[in-house]
Design brief:
Elements: E1 6-8, E2 15-17, E3 27-29, H1 30-55, H2 59-63, E4 72-75, H3 76-112, H4 116-120, H5 125-138
Length: 139
C-alpha cells in the first residue's frame, strides 16, 4: 500500500505534497473527520467552524457530519486544508490549542469505545496493524 502524505507549511498558505508521496488518494476516517469538526467547534464555536470549513471548501461537510466510525469519508488533503485554514485564521498558538482539542476528542472517543479493539482481533494482521495505527494517530 502506498501513501500520499500531505503537510502544510506553518505561517504559509500552501499545501505541499511530500517528495516521497505518490498519487494514491489517502482517506481519513469518519472518526478523525468528526473529531476535527468537534475540536474546532469546541474552541471557536459554530460560526467560527462554519468560516473555517467554508474557507477550506468543505462547508457541505458540516451539514451532515460523519458518524464516529472507521469508514473513510474525507481525503487527507481536504483534512489538511482544514488544518491550514485554521492556522491561517487563528495563528500558530490558537491553532495548536485547537489541534490539541482535536486530539483530546479523538482519545476520549477511543477510550469510550474500547471494545472496538475486540473487532480488530478478527482482521488479518496487516489490516489490524493499519487500523491500530489509524486509531492511535487520532489521539
Amino acid at each position: 500500500m502506498q501513501l500520499a502524505i500531505y503537510y502544510f507549511t506553518i505561517g504559509g498558505s500552501q499545501l505541499v505534497k511530500s517528495s516521497n508521496a505518490t498519487d494514491t488518494i489517502r482517506m481519513a476516517t469518519n472518526a478523525s473527520a468528526r473529531a476535527t469538526i468537534d475540536g474546532v467547534k469546541e474552541i471557536i464555536g459554530d460560526n467560527g467552524t462554519r468560516v473555517v470549513f467554508k474557507k477550506a471548501g468543505l462547508s457541505s461537510f458540516l451539514e451532515n457530519p460523519p458518524a464516529y466510525d472507521f469508514n473513510p469519508c474525507i481525503t487527507s488533503e481536504d483534512q489538511a486544508k482544514v488544518f491550514l485554514v485554521t492556522t491561517d485564521i487563528m495563528g500558530i498558538h490558537g491553532a495548536k490549542n485547537i489541534f490539541r482539542r482535536i486530539g483530546v476528542r479523538s482519545l476520549t472517543y477511543s477510550s469510550e469505545m474500547g471494545r472496538v479493539f475486540d473487532v480488530f482481533l478478527s482482521l488479518p494482521e496487516r489490516e489490524r496493524f493499519q487500523k491500530c495505527l489509524e486509531t492511535f494517530s487520532l489521539a
